[in-house]
Amino acid sequence: MSDYTFSVIIPTLDREEKLLECTKRLSEQTRQPEEVIIVDDGDLDIGVQTKIRETLGGTELRITSSDGPPGTSTARNTGIRTASSNIIVTLDDDVWLGAEHLERLEHLYEQYDSDTLAGIGVAGRTDSLTSTRRRLVDIHNRIFYRINSGWRINSAGFQKASIVSEPAESEWISGGVASYKRAVLLDHPFRHWEGGREVHEDIEICWRLKNEGYHFIVDPELPTNHSKGERHESGLKTGMKKGRNRVRMFRENGRLRHLPLFVWGCIGLIIAHLVHPFISESEGRYRFIAGIGVILGVIQQFPSIFYHSAKSSE
User: Fold this and answer.
1) What is the pTM of this model?
2) Which CATH architecture is the domain 6-123+164-226 placed in?
């Protein structure tokens, strides 16, 4: 019998159709989770709740709401505290797991677990890029983030993903579909900054854990499908969240001597957004407006770095 048990935590808000599909895919797992925890910050219809229970069959289901200011981070933290398993799987409600996802995840923990392993995630963020775009992204990352290869976070908190052909050690994983040791998360909760659909909270927790000596594993063979649909926030609002949270990440985890690298990274991030109309017709306008938001968000939050540093030195 395996030493690993799985609690799947799904934060959700008014996306019942996506949630139904998400839980349907969970019911098809070759290795069922011990429990599913839905943290609903909306008003989930009783009929939908009943249908989900029927779909999941014998898997234990808990439906609750955020214990604190509503948002992705609070919802995850609520689920983590109430979970009974030793492995937490965080799952956005628009993510579909392939049938063998949890079974493979269990094998990966059996193979790669160690005292410093914090979690295991999916390596698939750059697979859809063309070779030309991938080269441009790599050049951008080398210039602005000073990262040549691998799943790394630099000293200013900017991350890079690479294509890997087998499980590989990593410094970060994407929180939309990820797994973590519950014991680690209890001591390192997700940051709640903006509320709603949080931005970069998954990178921040990985950076924090990296600074404490933890690492992750990313695997390209964990079957996953992210269902992209309508956006619930404007590009400007999302961009401002990105900008403000980048500053907050650096303020909490970075060092003042790396401030020039942080500013340089922000310039690179903004450029990447502003040139998007020339790269992608489908998302170009949204990304451009988000780039404007990043500028505004960074400017708005930037002074807090020095205020925080002054307070820390008192």
Assistant:
1) 0.92
2) Alpha-Beta Complex (3.90)
